[in-house]
Design brief:
Elements: E1 2-6, H1 13-24, E2 28-30, H2 31-41, H3 44-55, H4 61-72, E3 81-84, H5 90-99, E4 104-109, H6 112-120, E5 122-125, E6 131-133, E7 152-153, H7 160-174, H8 176-183, E8 187-191, H9 196-207
Parallel strand pairs: 1-3, 1-4, 2-3, 4-8
Antiparallel strand pairs: 5-6, 5-7
Helix pairs in contact: 1-9, 2-3, 4-5, 6-7
The chain binds adenosine monophosphate.
């Protein structure tokens, strides 16, 4: 199965991708995760993109497309993959058409006020990356990771100004992809507001699995 997860920041694409990866046995390719692990490792790519990610803007298309093209060429992606957070611009989608044929594009639908509530309350573990939420999924002890006792922090791009910028960028650059893929007959809308297990059930139904 060759899948694309599309949707605004905070719609839970990453959480669902982890569940879907297990359920469908697919490699999960998250461009955001690739950039963040390069930033953490201090690689040349990480140094180049850190400021961009912190501000909520997009990494240039050329850089992002090259990374995804290389990743999809690997052996583990030949039978299928789950692309999370790519494409994010029409240029990226057109480039992807040249080297991959996605079978379905899942559009996670969520209202703006819920997006802001989800992103502003998110806290992630500095050590293991586990994700919590001040209201929806609080850690047992405030500020401490349930899994590894690491420190919980707010991602720089979850700060209020960065959230507004990410939403603006989503509407200007990524939302046009809904029409792009609907026209190709690939788009499946999923309500992203329920709990992750319910969203996964809806996803399975939409994909007939
Ligand atoms: P995410 O974890 O998917 O929310 O991505 C975090 C950040 O990584 C985004 O706000 C962008 O700065 C960058 N990023 C991730 N995917 C892309 C993409 N397809 N194109 C450009 N920038 C991206």
């Amino acid at each position: 199965m060759k899948l694309i997860f599309l949707g605004p920041p905070g719609a839970g694409k990453g959480t669902l991708a982890v569940l879907a990866k297990e359920a469908f046995h697919l490699p999960h390719i998250s461009t955001g995760d690739i950039f963040r692990s390069n930033i953490k490792g201090g690689t040349p790519l990480g140094l180049k993109v850190k400021k961009i990610l912190d501000s909520g803007a997009l990494v240039p298309d050329e850089t992002t497309i090259e990374i995804v093209q290389d990743r999809l060429a690997k052996a583990d992606c030949q039978a299928g993959y789950l692309l999370d957070g790519f494409p994010r611009t029409v240029t990226q989608a057109q480039a992807l058409d040249g080297f991959a044929k996605p079978e379905a594009v899942i559009n996670f639908v969520l209202a703006d006020d819920v997006i802001v509530q989800r992103l502003s309350g998110r806290r992630v573990c500095k050590a293991c990356g586990a994700s919590f939420h001040l209201q929806n999924l609080p850690p047992r002890q405030p500020g401490v990771c349930d899994n590894c006792s690491g420190e919980l922090i707010q991602r720089p791009d979850d700060a209020p100004e960065a959230i507004q910028e990410r939403l603006r960028v989503y509407k200007a650059q990524t939302e046009p992809l809904i029409a792009f893929y609907r026209q190709k007959g690939l788009l499946k809308d999923i309500d992203a507001s329920p709990a992750p297990e319910s969203v996964l059930a809806a996803l399975k139904k939409a994909l007939n699995v």
